[in-house]
Amino acid sequence: MTPVFGIAGHSGSGKTTLIEAMLPLLAARGLRVNVIKHSHHDFQMEPPGKDSARFRLAGAQEVMVASPFRYAIIHELREAPEPSLDEQLARLSPADLVLVEGFKRAAIPRIEVYRPVTGKPSLHAEDGSFLAVATDAPLETGLPCLPLNEPAQVAAFICRSLDLG
Fold it and tell me: What are the pLDDT digits (tens) for 129-139?
């Protein structure tokens, strides 16, 4: 099974920026990395009025858009429950690591991205299952504190935690 590691934190804490910075570092280690990003909001993958959007609006359950450069599958839930993280992981192509953004309560190894300047409470204070905190400020916690602005150190922590070398 592909190792999975979560990056959790409140909106605006820097999760996406951290993952974006780590991806080339992990690739340089020879790792193929997939990412799942959870959103609480509706989103559009294609511009309204394009063929694939028209197919979805007409009732298609799934639409695949394919080109010589990439493909995407849009699956409409149409009142069905959101798939579990395990179900979503099962749909991904093989990789050496899957980073998961969001899923704050998932039972996977994870770190919290925490910036006190946002004024939001930390997650790790209420949830003892985090392995570390990536932060940009001094923090009193029993967890390892990783420098948020040094993604190489965060990537190294993830690799050590999962024994990825």
Answer: 999 999 999 99
H or E element, residue 74: strand 71-75
CB atoms within 10 A of CB 97: 20
Question: Does residue 142 surpass a pLDDT of 80?
Answer: yes
- 138 within 8 A of 146, measured Cβ to Cβ: no
State phi, psi for 98 to the nearest 5 degrees.
-120, 120
**Does pLDDT of 121 surpass 90?**
yes
| Of 10, 5, 11, nearest in space to 122 by CA | 10
Contact indicator for 137, 115 with CB cutoff of 8 Å: yes
Q: Taken in order 109, 122, 20, 144, is the CA torsion positive or negative?
A: negative
Query: Which domains are seen in the chain, by residue range?
Result: 4-42+81-161 (3.40.50.300)
Please tell me the distance from the alpha carbon of residue 131 to that of residue 148, in angstroms, as a whole number: 15
DSSP letter assigned to residue 122: P
pLDDT band, very low/low/confident/very high, at 50 (cuts 50, 70, 90) = confident
Containing 37, the helix (H) or strand (E) segment is strand 33-37
Is-contact 39 102, C-beta < 8 A?
yes
Q: CA 107 to CA 127: how far, in whole Å?
A: 11
How remote is the C-alpha of 22 from its chain's centroid? 12
